Amino acid sequence: MLLEAKEVVSEICTELNVQMSDVLSKSRKRPIVEARAIILNELNGMFTDKTLSAIGLWFNRAPTSAHSFVIYNLKMFKEQMQVNKEFRAKYESVKCITGWINQYNYIPQY
Question: Would the pTM of this model clear 0.70, i.e. be above it?
Answer without folding.
Answer: yes
